[in-house]
Design goal:
By secondary structure, the protein is an alpha/beta fold. It contains 8 helices and 9 strands.
């Protein structure tokens, strides 16, 4: 019995992993998440419309992830220059943030920098660089904090065709502890602030 017999005995695959290809465009940013099944990529989508400065969120998000979206929204409101707009222009727009696969619960703080990047991208009407993914918590002051599950997230990034990972400076030691075979072909951008993240993806 060989690999060609796997389908005969096990049946068709029950799950499929996302790929970064085909997910380009303004407002769409690739994040990295840890799950009990290992690392996964997730896409954060933001859309802007005329409105009154409101934020709405969909995608079966947990309380911590909703708080991360609120922090991202509030930070951009306080620093609209990140999105190349004024405060008045920001307050004349409504922002909708969606994380696809609504049947799957999502939570945790590590999507913080992905959420702010997605909103900035949508407000600019500018797509981020392709082949990039990121993970990191953000504070209301714009600092990027380290997160866990780095090895699993790196494996998910490689599987999805990512070539550059944006990660907190304080996670550098975690990357350096990983065997070279797992990080070969990847470039890491270590950041300390949200401004560093935005500079890296545009």
């Amino acid at each position: 019995m060989g690999p060609e017999h796997l389908r005969e005995y096990l049946g068709l695959p029950t799950s499929f992993h996302d790929d970064v290809k085909g997910n380009e465009g303004p407002g769409v940013v690739t994040g990295l998440a840890w799950t009990e099944m290992g690392g996964e990529i997730l896409f954060v989508e933001s859309q802007v419309s005329a409105g009154k400065g409101n934020l709405s969120m969909t995608g079966n998000l947990g309380d911590v992830m909703k708080e991360s979206a609120q922090i991202a929204w509030q930070y951009i409101k306080a620093h609209p220059e990140l999105a190349d707009i004024t405060t008045e222009q920001f307050m004349a727009k409504d922002i909708h943030v969606h994380v696809p696969e609504g049947a799957v619960p999502k939570d945790g703080p590590s999507a913080g920098i992905t959420l702010v990047s997605s909103i900035v991208s949508a407000l600019r009407g500018q797509a981020p660089k392709t082949g990039y993914a990121m993970t990191g918590e953000m504070t209301l002051r714009g600092r990027v904090l380290p997160v866990g599950g780095i090895k699993e997230k790196i494996l998910a990034a490689k599987r999805a065709g990512v070539h550059t990972i944006i990660i907190a400076e304080e996670n550098r030691k975690d990357v350096e502890d990983i065997k070279e075979i797992y990080v070969k072909g990847l470039t890491f951008v270590y950041v300390k602030t949200i401004a560093d993240v935005i500079a890296a993806i545009f």
